């Protein structure tokens, strides 16, 4: 079932969203300071390509001082608009019965888009 969900996800906007994450990550990697944030954006892009059948997991050292600082910077600079976009997409998709599974995937991606350092989609 997750294969079918992921295929439909890609056809109806997931590919464009994942590509946006990847391109944004590559742009961030152009500077030395942006490399950690670019790598997280690329990680998010790969997660957005196939979210069905996966869960957000917290890594053992997710709350280390450096990751907390990076997560705070991420939220202020990039995270909140991404989370709002996922929330808006989920709200629109939840208006129809067919869109509810896709809305659930957008809701699942919100914590990962807010706190990408120390979390992964597996």
From TrEMBL:
It is found in: Cell inner membrane. The keyword Ribosomal protein does not apply. Residues 4-54, 69-119 form the Inner membrane component domain. The chain crosses the membrane at residues 7-35, 72-104. InterPro entries: Inner_membrane_protein, UCP028777, YccF. Coiled coil: none annotated. It is a multi-pass membrane protein. Keywords: Cell inner membrane, Cell membrane, Membrane, Transmembrane, Transmembrane helix. It comes from the Bacteria. GO terms for cellular component: plasma membrane. It holds the Pfam family YccF. NCBIfam families: PRK11770.1-2. PANTHER family: INNER MEMBRANE PROTEIN YCCF. This is Inner membrane protein YccF. It comes from Methylomagnum ishizawai.
């Amino acid at each position: 079932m997750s294969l079918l969900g992921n295929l439909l996800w890609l056809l109806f906007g997931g590919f464009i969203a994942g590509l946006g994450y990847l391109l944004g990550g590559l742009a961030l990697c152009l500077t030395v300071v942006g490399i950690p944030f670019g790598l997280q954006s690329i990680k998010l892009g790969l997660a957005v390509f196939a979210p069905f059948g996966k869960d957000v997991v917290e890594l053992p050292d997710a709350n280390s001082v450096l990751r907390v600082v990076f997560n705070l910077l991420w939220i202020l600079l990039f995270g909140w608009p991404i989370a709002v976009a996922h929330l808006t997409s989920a709200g629109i998709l939840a208006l129809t019965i067919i869109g509810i599974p896709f809305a659930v995937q957008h809701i699942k991606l919100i914590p990962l888009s807010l706190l990408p350092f120390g979390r992964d989609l597996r």
